[in-house]
Design a protein that fits this description.
The complex is a heterodimer of chains A (445) and B (293). Chain A has 445 residues and is α/β, with parallel strands linked by helices. Chain A has 2 domains: 236 residues, Rossmann fold, CATH 3.40.50; 157 residues, Response regulator (Rossmann fold), CATH 3.40.50. Chain A is 41% helix and 19% strand. In chain A, the strands form 4 sheets. Chain A has a 7-stranded mixed sheet with strand order 10-9-11-12-13-17-18, with helices on both faces. In chain A, helix 6 links the parallel strand 9 and strand 10. The longest helix of chain A is centred in the first third of the chain and has 26 residues. In chain A, 54% of the residues are buried. Chain B is mainly α. Chain B has a single domain, classed as ABC transporter involved in vitamin B12 uptake, BtuC, CATH 1.10.3470. Helices cover 75% and strands 3% of the residues of chain B. In chain B, a hairpin with a 2-residue loop joins strand 1 and strand 2. In chain B, helix 1 packs antiparallel against helix 9 and helix 2 crosses helix 8. The termini of chain B are far apart. The chains are: A alpha/beta (445), B mainly alpha (293). At the A-B interface, helix 2, strand 10, helix 7, helix 8 and helix 9 of A face helix 1, helix 8 and helix 9 of B.
């Protein structure tokens, strides 16, 4: 009898061990490993060579035409970079075989109707395995609808509205790796609450839903972390405003010590540029005014003191992040041609950095799922933890599919290790994830 | 000067600066419409094209001043080519305003795509020349030299335009043509050549505005949208074809924008359109426009 029990126990032990080996990789979180990266010296963003045959397809939904086409260019290089790297490593494991990554453009033109058409074309004609994008929460919402209808995973990598994954809009096929407005508000407020140097804030944001909700999040964050701070004024200007002087004159007269803005370019750049031209030297706390081409026109002196809040940030003291950054920069210096040879692409920081990082994560999730079957991918990605480029922790909150991560703040100084043409951040202040949380979305409450 | 007074004075000068910039754009538009009857939908695109020319000339020569001369001339030349080889042909087809509108809309789209093809979709920056950088202090108020330069430049252009229109034979012909071009033509004046000149000058004015605005704004493919709508409001409210209307309404809209932001910021963006609706309700031809009997 004892012998039988021993045999059964041994058999169970063997089964458990084997199953751990088999499903272990799927259970364990992934990690970006620099040492695994392939030789990228032949990577040319202008002539990205898509593989042919039975591939794993990413449908990149962005603005690829019209005035906003620069956005498309920006995220084309990030997805192509990751695809090129993974392809040189042999691809990812899908349905028992290694598949190379193909990247297909879907032009949203910045319009909801076109976005829907582009997303449906990617799903129905191009048969993509995953949808990726996009700038503009109203457009992301359209893609979420397409993802839900056709049961396709949507890697929502670029839109920030808190409501995208709330009870009303949540669907299980969408995973948001972009931080949200609440995280920005809390990040900014927490940073200033720790710094305790400035107390008077003026808000200048763009006059549409995003600008208003960002301002609300910031005010909410101040109430939570820095109640002694004061918002001395707030203004909302139309998109693509021509003249910021009237707003800046009001801000200056209010005695503000910091202007908080969620303006993206070109508004953000014009805002700072015109402020410096007017002699308004108040620092701007911002999330999008980190575009080096725009800042180089303002120069090192004018860009000093800007405070950039971000979910990804180049940090000279982060060995892993720097090693990755230097690989990228070396190619920028020696290989890339227009439009990828401007200062914007010199370092994979900010926007470029998090787009690259989260695309690695997404492909790693598919690889661990071993399938493009959405149900299997959902099981792996929900609650998944991934170690990013700098060793930072990314967690996909299971209840609403929104990323939880540390965020960062830095004050621009000159000189700095990044650019000679402008001020930039040297000291990176990390805001712990628990201090910059997204709002509780669907199924979290 | 007390800080509050300084703030209001600064707002007034901001309004003046923006108003003058608006005048530079709108004056060409109103001139072209007044004389040729063409509502040039590509006008703001010429403004943008000149900003790109400015960026390019500065990149080549490192001189804003050379760009200030060459970029508007280049834009004016493009305008002349458009009038001579496209507009004139379309007008001969007898399609009326529809033909002009469709053609100028097409030209706007071509310019928009052309700048992207030539200069890419990324943003470009033009720096203020060193001699115009910094601030001047007047009665305790610090104000940027460059913005004062825009006001001065616009006044010079306004003066030159007024001189040409009211003190020269050419101006007399243009004014007469605004009133009755058939009669002027019957007097033996080569009207096609005058039209070409006016269209060229109109686009050149947009070009001057493009260069003046470039260091304040960002040169990017959406630049035309930034100012085009306001310029159309100026022309409509001032009265189609009225230079005086363009001056007065540009300045008024500039001030309305500044003080609107100062006192009722939430409503400021719509004040311009409210004003337009109000004026057109009482004066459908605009302040200085004349009813075409």
């Amino acid at each position: 009898m004892r012998k039988v029990l021993k045999s059964v126990s041994f058999f169970i032990f063997l089964c458990l061990t084997a199953s751990l080996f088999l499903i272990g990789p799927a259970l364990a979180g992934g990690e970006f490993k620099l040492e695994d990266m392939s030789d990228m010296s032949d990577f040319d963003p202008n002539n990205f060579q898509n593989p042919t045959g039975d591939t794993f397809k990413i449908g990149v939904l962005q603005i690829f035409s019209g005035p906003g086409a620069g956005n498309g260019e920006l995220f084309w290089i990030t997805t192509c970079w990751v695809a090129h790297d993974i392809n040189k490593r042999g691809g990812i494991m899908i349905d028992g075989k290694k598949k190379l990554i193909e990247v297909i453009k879907g032009d949203t033109m910045g319009k909801p109707a076109t976005t829907k058409k582009a997303a449906e074309k990617l799903v129905l004609e191009d048969k993509v395995d995953v949808l990726w994008g996009t700038s503009g929460s109203h457009l992301a919402l359209v893609i979420q609808g397409v993802a839900d209808r056709y049961k396709k995973i949507f890697h929502q990598s670029l839109s920030m509205s808190d409501s995208l994954m709330d009870e009303k809009n949540f669907n299980k096929y969408t995973f948001q790796t972009m931080w949200s407005t609440n995280q920005v508000g809390e990040t900014t407020a927490y940073f200033y609450s720790q710094r305790k140097k400035e107390k008077k804030f003026y808000i200048i944001c763009q006059d549409y839903l995003f600008g208003h909700s960002l301002a609300e999040s910031f005010k909410k964050g101040l109430t939570k972390y820095y109640p002694e701070a004061e918002v001395v004024g707030e203004d909302y200007h139309p998109l693509f405003a021509k003249d910021f002087a009237p707003y800046l004159t009001k801000a200056k007269a209010s005695g503000a010590e910091v202007i908080f803005t969620g303006d993206w370019l070109p508004d953000g750049g014009n805002l700072v540029k015109q402020a410096r031209q007017l002699g308004v030297n108040v620092p701007f706390a911002n999330i999008f005014i980190d575009e080096p081409n725009a800042l180089s026109a303002i120069g090192p002196e004018g860009t000093k003191g800007l405070v950039n809040l971000n979910q990804y940030m180049g940090d000279a003291n982060n060995e892993k992040g720097m090693a990755f950054g230097n690989k990228w920069k070396e190619l920028w210096e020696t290989k890339w041609e227009a439009p990828y040879n401007t200062l914007l692409y010199k370092w994979p920081g900010g926007t470029i950095g998090y787009a690259v990082e989260t695309t690695y994560w997404m492909l790693d999730v598919f690889n661990r799922a071993g399938s493009s079957d959405p149900e299997k991918v959902i099981k792996v990605w929900e609650g998944d933890v991934y170690k990013g480029i700098g060793g930072n922790r990314l967690e996909m909150r299971a209840c609403d599919h929104v990323v939880i991560r540390d965020t960062y703040a830095t004050e621009y100084v000159y000189p700095n290790p990044w650019f000679t043409e402008l001020s930039s951040g040297t000291e990176v202040f990390t805001i712990p994830a628990e201090k910059s949380m997204p709002v509780d979305g669907a199924r979290c409450k | 000067m007390s800080p509050v007074t300084a703030m209001y004075v600064a707002q007034a000068i901001h309004g003046l600066t923006y108003g003058m910039l608006l005048f530079l754009v709108a004056s060409g538009l109103t001139l072209i419409f007044g004389m040729m009857g063409i509502l040039n939908l590509a006008h703001a695109s010429f403004f943008m094209l000149s900003a790109y020319f400015c960026y390019q000339v500065v990149a080549w020569t490192d001189s804003f001043w050379i760009a200030l001369i060459l970029a508007p001339i280049g834009t004016g030349l493009v305008g002349i080519i458009v009038e001579r080889f496209l507009l004139r042909k379309v007008q001969k087809l007898g399609l009326g305003h529809i033909g002009d509108l469709l053609l100028t809309l097409g030209i706007a789209l071509v310019i928009s795509e052309a700048v992207k093809t030539i200069w890419g979709t990324e943003s470009h920056q033009v720096l203020i020349p060193p001699s115009l950088q910094g601030l001047v202090t007047v009665a305790g108020l610090e104000y940027p030299i460059y913005r004062l330069f825009i006001i001065g430049l616009s006044l010079v252009i306004l003066g030159a335009l007024a001189f040409i229109l009211f003190k020269t034979r050419l101006g007399m012909i243009i004014r007469a043509a605004v009133s009755d071009r058939d009669m002027v033509s019957a007097l033996g004046i080569n009207m096609p050549r005058v039209f070409m000149f006016v269209f060229g000058v109109g686009t050149l004015m947009a070009g001057v505005a493009g260069v003046a605005a470039a260091p304040m704004l960002t040169v990017f493919p959406g630049l035309a949208d930034q100012i085009g709508l306001d310029a159309f409001v100026v022309v409509v409210v001032g009265g189609f074809g009225s230079l005086l209307g363009a001056v007065v309404v540009s300045l008024f809209l500039g001030e309305l924008n500044s003080f609107g932001i100062q006192f009722i910021p939430r409503l400021a963006p719509v004040l311009v359109f409210l004003f337009m609706a109000l004026v057109l309700s009482f004066k459908p031809m605009g302040f200085f426009g004349e009813r075409d009997e």
